[in-house]
Structure formats: structure tokens, C-alpha cells
What does this fold into?
Amino acid sequence: MLLASTALHGALAASVQTGAATVQVAQQGRTVAFSIAPGPLPGALAAYGQATGFQLLYPSEIAQGVSSPGVTGTLAPKDALARLLAGTGLIARFVDQETVTLEKLPAQTDGAAVLDPVTVQGVQSRDPGRSEDTGSYAGGVSSSATKLDLTPRETPQSVSVMTRQRMDDQGLNEIRDVLEQTVGVTRMQRGAMGSDGNEVFSRGFVVSNYQVNGIPRSTVYGFDDSLSDMAVFDRVEVVRGASGLLNGVGEPSASVNLVRKRPTSAVQGYAEAQAGSWSRYRGEADLSGPLTENGRLRGRIVGAYQDNDSFIDRLEERKRVLYGVLEADVTEDTTWTVGVEYQKHRSNHASNAGFPLFYADGTKTDLPRSYNSGANWAYHMHNNLTVFSELKHRFGDGWTATLNLEHNKRDYDSLLGFGTGGSLNRDGTGMNVWAGRWLSSLQQTTVSADVNGGFDLFGRRHDLMAGVSGYYAKRDGADHPLWFIDGYDPSISNYFTWNGNIAQPTLNPTGWSQTDERQMAAYAATRLRPTDALSIILGSRISRWEQIEESHPNGAAGTYSKRSENGVLTPYAGAVLDLTDIWSVYASYTSIFKPQDYKDASGRSLDPLDGDAYEAGVKAGFFGGALNASAAVFLIKQNNLGEVDPGRFTPSGAQAYRAVKGAESRGFEMEVAGEVMAGWQVGGGYSHSSVKNADGQRIMTYVPRDSFKLFSTYRLPGAWNRLTVGGNFKWEGDVYTGTGTERYDREGYAVVDLMARYEITDKVSATLNVNNLLDKKYMSSIDVSGYYGEPRNVLLSLRATW
It folds into this structure.
């Protein structure tokens, strides 16, 4: 079973001689600067892949406990690999244009083993940051911050990468679970899957910028990928801070980029079955490989189905996932990729919120963790169908041109009924059901074209990226009554004994509404290398944004509003200085701009967010990048921050927001990810942020200022090497909402998880995850209602690979 690989950009054509292993290199003149310290072989190979663009595949057991002497200097790739593998007893063999396999040196009577020379034409890796089969928690090359292919140490911002191995080890099957485990990110759940009762925060602000394969989603409600199942994706890259260079508009919190799996050059696949607490059952399968004898056409298909109840009474969730992608080498230098992704999510007996925090007399409530405030007829349904195409051409000298086309069609239908209205009395009376319906169809079409490569100036090599992009997004649907329905009795006779039974109101359409959004932009960034140790990244984006909203009530005059921003300039600047072969310092700046969908109590849209974001820190890459570490400080200044206006609603019945002038967020973050020593992986860190208004008063008090997360696994050596054990520790600091007698405080809490995986055979493994081992009772959200985090639960996974 292939458990380790590195795949990063670069052209290659090689053959390597190691001991008695010989491989010839087509690019005879190519040299690369290497600085790989002696250490565990997996980390050394990862660093080699980052430097050369080679993809290295090998059974993890042949590298476990093996040390590499490392390699330093500017060398031809063949010579560097020879030094890297010297004394390891391994040989290298090319299996296609971009893949090298490592094998144990076979025994020979004369003490030598010779591989036939293999000539490989130069190509770039199709996915330079691929995490699949690496077995690592460390992220590789990423373009999510600047669209330049940079390692974490080369990127002048905080970047967290949730790798495929990390997601598999923790059983993270949904993006909401991935983000909950990501350093510097807080997920607040206050409703069922698919409701608007779930938000993600970073650096004190809501996360609204989502990308898939670097293609940004509209920030209009319903377009984000906050419901995505992870079976489709290789990794998730989270860039904390402002990301206006690539998104154009967005919060200064974080940008979440989900990177899809791609077809592989060799046949591989797996089938997995899961069973867990609350009748959770899941099946997942993945098959990938060449479809023609010459390997020029490759394909991949992924499917998943999950059905589960919940610790919340009566709540049922179900989802279906299907993904297919084809990749063809049209010519030696041109690759065409086409694919389709479909996901369907549904929640039944589903609430949008939890339960009241206070009784009518001002004392705190204490309802059970399993309390469901949703009516039995309430549900949330989301369909997502995406078709996409990528055409990439590789020119000489490492330049590429890429054209991306994507069309995304979505539907959501939420029949709302949740008992959070009114005022709860001690005898269970006083509460009402808020009812309504949200129903819309959404479409987004995106086109982008980019060029990326290197150039020589003043005797040094530099990098350049430039591109144009645009999207058109449309939401339209029938409007229905919300919250207060004429002729409908919403009262709940006894909130404590209520089981969701209440009459379903008649919700006839009251009209229709539509939102159209367009964004067009041109952008460019360059990385200048005035010295070997110093990199300076300069970039800018100029954007045009337009949004039109229409509303047409039955029997009444319609309304029309248009907002637009033209020539919005978003500058970006960053610098990275290498202090040693391991340590670097960096600083970056970018501006903030985001038109807001939030509305105040009068129904008026809040003015756009604007401001500036600064960040500085130190980064380290140990063992050639197998272990990454970082520490950062940040300052974010912005105006017109949208904050929940408690107890107030817009004329349409949605939650009202108020604009905060002069909001400022300060804080710091520390993170580590990767292999500490052979078989020992870690991922986690600490984050602190404090958000205050112009008067120095703390705002967003319901979002934790402090959090600590650390997950680690260790594969036992020797006779126990089939067993991997791990654990997770998560802590969040205190929060509060309200003031005076209506203030609700939640103390900090800690949750402990355990994990164990046993390889039954080389192809079959079983993994057990025990989450919230100590059954800690805590509130995951207290901003507008109370909602508990998950109690202790168990997940058992059985996986077969080939």
C-alpha cells in the first residue's frame, strides 16, 4: 500500500544512480538548490519533492526508521537523489512521466543491483501540493494565498493545511469538522446541518470566503461550501487573514480553499465502511488510474453515502456524494481536465437554533443536551451540482497557462419550524414556534485565465503570476411567510415535554425575489529574489463588483436596488527573509473590502467593510519541510463590521445586524504540523484574538478569544508497527453574551479524543475514534440561543485498499 508520496511543481526528466541503481536525466542542464538536513528519510524525500517536482511513491514501511544523510548544494536532481538515498538500501524507478517509485535494493550474488536506464520527458506535477498518500500532516506547496506556488515557509501569511492523512486519522468527513480542528478557526454550531445556524470565525470575524480549486464562491447566501463532504477532496488549505488578492471581496478572517482529488497515474483505490454512535452508517469508495494503455487518459470516481441520527432528539441527517473526473494529455505539454461533482444533504426534524438561555424571571435555563427545538415537519435540503473544466499548457522554462471554467447549480429548501420564540416560564409555557420557508435556486458561472512562471532579471530568477477572472451568480426563488403566520397558532403548551408535534402552517408564496451578482477582476503578483535569503512579494487586484436585488410581492409594487463598486484596488505586499536553512521571518500587508449582505432593522444593507490587515511572524521548516512551525502576530483595522443586533429583525424576518465603527482585532497564533520523528505526526497550535470597537470595548464577545488544538499520532516500531495510536486535545476560552442580568457566561472547556488504527493486513486496516472521551458537557454557541457540543461518541472504520 502506497502511504507516502511527494508531488510538487517543476519539470523533470531523470534517471538516478544510487548504489547500483541508474536513472538517466533528459534535462541534463537543470540544477536545483538543495538544503536538506540529515534526518528521517520520509522528511528528506518530502523536501526533495518540493525542490524538484518529482512525485515519489513508496510503501511507508520501507522508509520507517531509515535515516538519510541529507544533501546540500546546487546539484542536478539525479546527483542529489543519489546522495539522499546513499546507504539507505533503496533504489529509484520511474513508472511514468511524473512518478518515481522507491524499492528495497534486491540482493545480488555480486552485491550489485542495476536498473535499466529510464528516460522521462519533462513535465510539471498536475497537483504540486497533493497530500494524498504522503502520510503527513505537513502541508506542501500551496497557491491559496497568492496563486504563486509557495511552500508554507515561503508564504508571508499564516496557512494551515488539513491533509488527507489527518482527515482520515480523525474521521473528519465534513468541512465543518475539518474547520473545527483547524488552528485559529472557531466553529459555532447552533442549528442542524444545512441551517443558517452555523458560523465559522477566525481572528474574531466570520469566515465567508470559500474556494474550490482556487475558484472563489459568491458570498451571497447559499453559495459557500460549508456543507461539503470531504470524500471528494485531497486537502483543505486555510489562509488566515485577508485574502483580497484572490477573492476580491471578503472578510479579513480567513479564506478556505478545498482542493479536489485528481486522477492518478497508477491504479489505486479504497473502499471504506463506517459505523458509529447515534446509528451513524457510512460507505465510501474511490477508484483511480489510467484508462488507456499509454496512460494519457486517466480517470477517477468517488462515491459516498451517509445516514445518521444525532445526539439531538429526533434529528436525522442523510447525504449522498458522487464525483467523477477525467484527465487527458492532449499533447506532451497540454492537459485537459473535466469533471462533475454532486452532493445532496438533508436534515429532518431540524431546528435552526437551540433553546433559550434564560427563563422569563431572568434565571438561566438548564435543558438537556439532547433537546430539539425543531418541529417534526421541519427540514433542510441542499443540492449541489458542479461541472468544471481546466485546460493547462506548459511552455518552456517552467511557464504555464491555465484556463478554468466552472458552472455550479444549487438548490436549497428549508421548511422552518423551531421553538425559540417567546419567553420561557418555569412551568414550560410561553414559547412559540417560528415558522417559514426559504426556497431558492442558485447558479454561478466562473471563468479564469492565468499565467505563471519564472523570469530572469539582474542575474537572478524571479516568479510572476497574472490573470483575469469573472463570475456571474444568480439566486432566485419564491418568497414565503416568515415567523408570524396569519391564522396560525404557534404556541407550545409545555416546552419541557414538547416532542416536535405541532400543526404545520400553510405557507403559500407571497411573491418572488432575485439577487444577481457579478465580479470581474484582473490581478498580478510577483516574487522578487534580490538575494538568496530575501523574497519580496508584490501584488495587486483591481475589481468591479455589482449586485442587483429585486423583490416582487404578490399584488404589490416590486422593489429594485443596485449596489456596485468599480475600480476597487486591493494591494498586497509581503517579504520573507531566511535567517538560516531552517528559520525565516516575514511580514505582509493587504487591504480589506467587502460589500455586505447583512441588513439593519430597517432592511438597509450595511455599508461595505473596509480597512487594512497587517501580519508578521517567524516560520521554520525542519527536516527539509517534513515538520513546519510558525508563530504570527496580526493587526486588523476595519470599519462597518456587521455584528448581531440581539432581538431585532429585518422587515423580511431575518436577523438584523448593526455596523461597528473602528473595529480592531489584535492577536497572535502558533502552529506546528508534520513529522517530529519517524512515525510521530503532530498538528495543532494556539491562537488568541481580541476584537474591540473604537472606544476600546470588547465586541463579538460570543466568539472565543483563545483556543488550543493539538492532534498527534504515533506508529509503534518493531513488532507493533501495525498499530498507530493517537489523541486530540481541544480547549476554548470563555465567552459571554448580553449585559447585566441578561448576561450569559460560558466558561472555557476542554475536550479529549482518542484514536487507534490497526493494519490487519497490508491492504486492510481498522480505525477506532473515541471523541469527547470524558463526556464533557459544554455549549458550542450562546450568541442568540443555547446549543450543546457533541457528547462522547465512537466511530469505527474499516478500510480496504488496492
Observations:
- Residues 268-801 form a domain with the Maltoporin; Chain A fold (CATH 2.40.170.20).
- The chain has two domains: 32-104, 268-801.
- The two ends are 7 Å apart (CA to CA).
